[in-house]
Design brief:
This protein is of the alpha/beta class. The chain is built from eight helices and ten strands. The strands form four sheets. It has a three-stranded parallel sheet with strand order 4-3-5. A three-stranded antiparallel sheet has the order 9-6-10. A two-stranded antiparallel sheet has the order 1-2.
Length: about 220
């Protein structure tokens, strides 16, 4: 069974896998025809390539990927933003053909290629740090200091907190679903959060942001 006869019609799990396979075959066929010099077929041009990328990567290094794409490439990119800890689910469902993921485990029908390390630092404004972490990071200060989170799937802050306490603490939380907005509200002292070193290095040098626990980064 490949389709659910609902309104609108939806693909089943098997249907999504089959759709992803068909897109992969079409892409391979297009590459092969280009290599052997076959004439262009307008009907098969501009293949759709859905890719899942986390917002931090999309707003930093990932855009450089498009510099390697030929101008005459018959590909239409369909970029989906998804948390790096959850993007592999979209691959498993067949929603995308590729994904930037924190998981080293290959999804069936896919291969894994290491891309590198993205370092996250726990940062906030100097005023926020002085007010909420005067004696450094402790279980008590983390429980009361306002915290920034990208969305409900963002687990980086919880992973950082787990390094300092095994308690299930629930600090006041602001949800900021924007990579650049995340940095800007931190500068304004709204809360602390885990941010890519790429994004905040300049603000740290300028003194607009500070690390609340130097040396305690997440890679």
């Amino acid at each position: 069974v490949l389709l659910q006869r609902t309104t609108p019609c939806l693909a089943t799990t098997a249907g999504k896998v089959l759709a992803r396979f068909a897109e992969q075959v079409a892409l391979l066929e297009s590459e092969m025809l280009g290599e052997v010099g076959a004439p262009d077929d307008p009907a098969s041009s501009h293949l759709r390539l859905p890719i899942a990328v986390n917002a931090d990567s999309l707003d930093s290094w990932f855009l450089a990927v498009f510099e390697t794409v030929p101008n005459d490439a018959a590909i239409s990119f369909d970029i989906r933003t998804e948390d790096q800890d959850h993007s592999a689910v979209l691959l498993r469902e067949g929603t995308v053909m590729a994904a930037v993921s924190a998981s080293p485990l290959p999804v069936q029908g896919c291969a894994v290629e290491p891309l590198g390390v993205m370092r996250y630092l726990a940062v906030t404004s100097p005023a926020h740090a002085a007010r909420h972490f005067p004696a450094g990071v402790t279980a008590d200060s983390l429980a009361h200091a306002p915290m920034l989170t990208f969305n409900m799937k963002d687990g980086l802050q919880e992973r950082f907190i787990a390094r300092f306490t095994a308690e299930a603490i629930r600090p006041p939380t602001h949800y900021i679903p924007s990579a650049n907005g995340f940095v800007e509200v931190a500068k304004r002292g709204l809360g602390w959060g885990m941010m890519p070193e790429l994004h905040v290095s300049r603000a740290l040098t300028a003194g607009e942001l500070v690390e609340i626990a130097p040396g305690h980064h997440l890679d």
